[in-house]
Design brief:
Blueprint lengths: L11 E2 L2 E3 L2 E3 L4 E6 L6 E7 L2 H20 L2 H17 L1 H12 L3 H18 L2 H4 L3 E7 L2 E9 L2 E5 L13 H6 L3 E5 L6 H13 L6 E3 L4 H9 L5 E5 L2 H15 L2 E5 L4 E5 L5 H13 L9 E7 L3 H16 L3 E2 L14 H16 L3 E4 L7 E2 L11 E4 L6 H4 L6 E7 L2 H10 L2 E2 L1 E5 L3 H10 L4 E4 L15 E2 L2 E3 L5 H7 L1 E9 L2
Parallel strand pairs: 1-5, 8-9, 8-11, 9-10, 11-12, 13-14, 13-21, 14-19, 15-17, 18-19, 21-22
Antiparallel strand pairs: 2-3, 4-5, 6-7, 7-25, 12-24, 16-18, 20-23
Helix pairs in contact: 1-8, 2-4, 2-7, 3-4, 3-7, 10-11
The structure holds nicotinamide-adenine-dinucleotide.
Length: about 500
């Protein structure tokens, strides 16, 4: 199958989008590299503190007018943006494949999920309504109104470059706030494209700003007195020790969604064929670089024959995954985002061996790439059995195409193993028993639960949950929780003489 046309034809220097203008940064430029071809596809600036300050000034100027713009009028900008996103759907998706490495189908899924958040936020007149009660005492009424807070910083990770800032930004602006987005500098191009469409949709200058960069921009956001809050998605060390901590010190609102090390529990009564198909996407989709990805498979029961046959079929299915450049539509798994990330995953595979696990499929050795691409960032699916709950490959986030396999005597033991893990982002169960499914859902600690679903991804109108070391804060991104995060409740008690 032919490789789809690349939408990025020349290496451009990305610009910041501040106050409705495209401004060249004075910061140092860094190459953005396509991990499949190893070619440079853009140059991204590491912006300065002054540039972040300029974005805050632009947002401050825009805020008083934007907050007075009626919610329905604000929604119309989002409707326009949604139309433009649909028009550019394929281009945006291909950009993600080029900057990140994921397959074109994964990118299309990501674009769709991103747009869905814009769609949900267009319902803002209903979503933002308050509530009231007459006669809280005779002749006295009381009501709650929701008001925007001000300026928010939105910080994204590398693994879903287009979608994740859209878990927050549409809700923030729909509720009347102004935003400054700092995309991951590893994958900044689809956010640049998004900002171009925001510009085309005619949002008032300063409502939606983008400042490219790294830690300097994040630190400046965290310290800036005029930034009211931060919506962050990334790894746990950054979420907990940098974002959550600093927001606590400076009194900012915060959503800090972190990393994961998820379990998938397979009961012997599961539908085997469908379960295995789902496991392939869960463990190896997005090349394992997904906070909802399965990392450890727990096969329940003492039936050795079931275990043996099941794992043989899993290994067989994983060994047939087509690996290559994601713009080839027949490819099922792309490269890791960069060579450093591949090295990190390999270190974990070596660690698994040292800790006593047995390799059943070795992606370091069995790698076959479709097409003529450098091996630099590619790694095949890797499966190792005999892991135990205390091993580092179970406890820590690997973030690559690996599957550790363990066994549990019964469902109770499996739930206990899941609940003892420090991360609690997503756990899933495959079973045909309603009783087992209910027990799992009821007792599991993680924020997202899948029942016969291997990627428990909440839709835009539900919160993107998380718990334990996977989440710091109270409210989550997406849907009603995002609306609450981006608004302040004002309670009015009213009496007329
Ligand atoms: P990361 O924490 O390295 O970076 C995230 C963002 O923070 C980037 O924009 C980066 O520039 C910035 N940053 C990194 N270190 C910083 C520091 N010390 N000070 C200030 N800013 C800093 O995360 P990543 O590697 O880009 O993303 C992958 C991680 O994100 C994984 O752990 C994954 O599980 C997690 N993730 C979580 C969710 C969720 O909803 N819970 C969703 C997607 C990804």
């Amino acid at each position: 199958m032919a490789v789809l046309e690349e939408p990025i034809k020349e290496v451009k220097v990305l610009k910041n989008f501040i106050g409705g203008e495209w401004i060249e940064s004075k910061g140092q430029l860094v190459d953005v590299v396509n991990p499949a071809t190893c070619k440079v596809i853009a140059k991204v600036p590491i912006s300065t503190e002054e540039e972040l300050n300029a974005a805050v000034e632009a947002a401050k100027e825009a805020f008083p007018i934007w907050r007075r713009t009626p919610p329905l009028a604000r929604a119309r900008y989002l409707f326009r943006l949604k139309e433009l996103l649909e028009e550019h759907f394929e281009e945006i998706s291909r950009i993600q494949t080029m900057e990140h490495g994921k397959t074109i189908d994964e990118s299309r899924g990501e674009t769709r999920r991103g747009i869905e958040n814009v769609e949900v936020a267009t319902g803002i007149p209903s979503l933002m309504m308050g509530y009231n009660l007459e006669d809280i005492a005779t002749g006295i009424d009381e009501y709650v109104i929701r008001q925007p807070v001000g300026i928010f910083g939105i910080i994204g990770p590398f693994n879903f470059p287009f979608m994740i800032p859209l878990w927050s930004a549409p809700y923030a602006v729909a509720t009347g706030n102004c935003v400054i987005i700092k995309p991951s500098s590893e994958v900044p191009i689809s956010q640049q494209k998004l900002a171009e469409l925001v510009d085309e949709a005619g949002f008032p200058p300063g409502v939606w700003n983008v400042v490219h960069g790294g830690r300097t921009v994040v630190s400046a956001m965290l310290d800036h007195p005029d930034i009211a809050g931060i919506a962050f998605v990334g790894s746990t060390p950054t979420a907990k020790d940098v974002i959550y901590k600093r927001c606590g010190e400076t009194g900012k609102r915060v959503i800090a969604q972190g990393g994961a090390a998820n379990f998938i529990v397979v009961m012997p009564d599961c539908s085997v064929q469908r379960t295995i198909a789902s496991l392939m996407t869960s463990f190896f989709g997005n090349t394992g670089q997904r906070c909802l990805a399965g990392q450890t498979l727990i096969v329940v029961g003492e039936d050795d024959n079931f275990y043996k046959r099941f794992i043989e079929r899993v290994v067989d299915a994983a060994s047939q995954i087509t690996i290559g450049y994601g713009l080839d539509e027949s490819v099922q798994m792309g490269p890791l985002r960069d060579e450093e990330k591949k090295k990190r995953v390999i270190k974990y595979i070596e660690m698994a061996e040292e800790e006593g696990a047995r390799i059943l499929l070795d992606g370091r050795k069995s790698l076959r790439i479709k097409g003529d691409y450098p091996e630099t960032c590619f790694l095949g699916p890797t499966i190792f059995e005999g892991v135990t709950p205390d091993m580092r490959v179970v406890q820590e986030e690997i973030f690559g195409p690996t599957m550790g396999v363990m066994r549990a005597r019964d469902l109770d033991e499996a739930i206990e193993i899941c609940n003892e893990n420090p991360y609690q982002n997503a756990q899933c169960i495959f079973t045909s028993s309603g009783k087992s499914a209910r027990e799992f859902r009821y007792r599991i600690r993680s924020g997202n639960v899948g029942i016969n679903i291997g990627i428990a991804a909440p839709m835009a109108f539900f919160p993107f949950s998380g718990s334990g070391e996977s989440f710091f804060g109270v409210l989550h991104t997406q849907g009603q929780e995002a609306i609450r995060f981006f608004t302040e409740s004002k309670v009015v008690i009213e009496r007329w003489f």
